[in-house]
Amino acid sequence: MKPDDFAFFTKYIYDQTGLVLGPDKMYLIESRLAPLARKYGVANIDLLVGQLRTSRTADMQRDIVDAMMTNESFFFRDGKPFDQFRQIVLPGLLQSRAARKSFRIWCAAASTGQEPYTLAMILKEEAAKLAGWRVDIVGTDISHEALERAKSGIYTQFEVQRGLPIQLLVKYFKQQGDKWQIAPEIRSAVQYKSFNLLSDFAALGAFDVIFCRNVLIYFDQKTKGTILDRMAKLLPADGLLYLGGAETVLGVTERFQPMPGQRGIYQVVGSGGGAAKAV
Ligand SMILES: C[S@@+](CC[C@H](N)C(=O)[O-])C[C@H]1O[C@@H](n2cnc3c(N)ncnc32)[C@H](O)[C@@H]1O
């Protein structure tokens, strides 16, 4: 790719998604765009970037953003965060939200659905404690293709073998040829929406817990800070934020602080507790 095209393309992706693509990502860009050049009937990616510059369609923009996203995800990713959810966060919510009997969870980079469905399965396993409760799980992502896969609830053998306990596979998935489809009651527990983390959060409503895992790593400090500050506004004083294992709020925002003893979970600053406090 010519330097001028590279500069245009990386700025375009940064402006559209927040994703920072340095010079070391040239190979990644070329390998992701090559199939799109074929799809759009042009001989090479220089011509594709030329079209993006001069005559892009909405479909092309969507395909290019989709192609540049890394949608890697798996069920019960990293294990511990979901143990913490079941053992600490959920009991805390059951106690602190007992009067209204409802809470809302946002998976802010839901990708192909493994994270929200992991939460939906945990909640299903705890259904006896949640009788009469309303729980919303909202899964959002910028990637159209990832959301379509998430909505379908269909996973490969490889995907269901990564992290998903066998008893939950047997209980909540049905084999369809060489794939597995998640049960309708788990699928319907999650609402999916297309959403760009660079846009205004107001329309999403308030949440009690936000999962924003393994997406901030792709952004620069300024974008991370803006996103986290906006997330803090959607949470009540005792709301909780989950980040990925390689992510932190330290040096990024002053609106969250680590939850003592619970790696990966953050409390709104000034809350003095978090939804799990009561436990
Ligand atoms: C690596 S996946 C993380 C999936 C899941 N949270 C997990 O931890 O397994 C990162 C996701 O972030 C999404 N993403 C990247 N930039 C985004 C943006 N600006 N707005 C919304 N989603 C974005 C990508 O499409 C991708 O699906």
What is the overall number of helices?
11
CATH-defined architecture of the largest domain:
3-Layer(aba) Sandwich
Biggest beta sheet attributes: 7 strands, mixed
Uncertain segments: none
SSE layout:
Blueprint: H1 3-17, H2 26-39, H3 45-54, H4 58-68, H5 80-96, E1 102-107, H6 114-125, E2 134-141, H7 144-152, E3 154-156, H8 157-161, H9 166-172, E4 173-176, E5 179-182, H10 184-187, E6 190-194, E7 209-212, H11 221-234, E8 240-243, E9 256-258, E10 265-268
Parallel strand pairs: 1-2, 1-7, 2-6, 7-8
Antiparallel strand pairs: 3-5, 4-5, 8-10, 9-10
Helix pairs in contact: 2-4
The structure holds S-adenosylmethionine.
S-adenosylmethionine is lined by residues 17-19, 69-73, 77, 109, 111, 115, 141-143, 146, 196-198, 213-215, 218, 244.
